[in-house]
Design goal:
It is a single chain. This protein has 121 residues and is an alpha+beta fold. The protein contains 4 helices and 5 strands. It has a 3-stranded antiparallel sheet. The protein has a two-stranded antiparallel ribbon with strand order 2-3.
Amino acid sequence: MKIFTGIDIVENDRIKRAIDRYGDAFLRRVFTDKEIDYCLSKKDFISCFSARFAAKEATIKAYYQAFGKTLSFKDIEVLGKKNKPAEILLHYYKNHLNINISLSISHEKNYSVAIVILYTA
């Protein structure tokens, strides 16, 4: 088994500025419809989007280490589950069936952070 990691931290105000400036165009370029619906249902939707942005960046880093290929934001979906840890779903490179991805995200007032651990057989 090989292990690859990615980590990212995002200033929540950076995501807020992008949403304020570009609105729906920014959201649709980076997030899936499910992610948008999930985050907009939250009281603190900015930190929800920030945490998912960090998770996507962390996934891109780990995946590149493992396979030398760069994923796009929309190739990665962060699935939110009430009272359960979020999960990563890859929409691309389906030929990599022997991988497992572990995700941990956290956010507070100013920052959101994510770490991804990718395991290959």
